[in-house]
Write a structure and sequence with these properties.
4-stranded antiparallel β-sheet; alpha+beta; 4-stranded mixed β-sheet; 8 strands
Length: 147
Amino acid sequence: MLIRVQKEAFDFSAEVENFTQKQRGMGAIVTFSGIVRDTPDGDLKYMEIEHYPGMTQAALTDFAQTALDRWSLGDALVIHRYGSLKPNDMIMMVATAARHRVAGFEAAEYLMDYLKSRAPFWKKEVKQDGAIWVEAKDHDETALNRW
């Protein structure tokens, strides 16, 4: 299991290749990448993401360990960035390695749902006309109910 919280950009393809090469006996590698989405008006200058390092690392590690245990994964990778990110910048990625695809997909979805709703990151959208903190969305909270 590898959990990284970092300011620097990462190479998705290289991360997937490295993760995949370490797996033995797995039949599925599932990946997801999240990018900074522009606002509907197209006026997002950047998103500022803040976090408390120790708290964030511990929470992400807990989420990943739960996924490893619940779905008997071979491995999991979570990378999440912080700092100032522009529209279309890669913000995070998840990879899971499982013996079978269903477990890989479910574990990846679980991780994405928990990263979206429970990871201790605070996001502020900085637009042309000011800045607003991003609030939790009901549908993100609802997604947690399936787990």
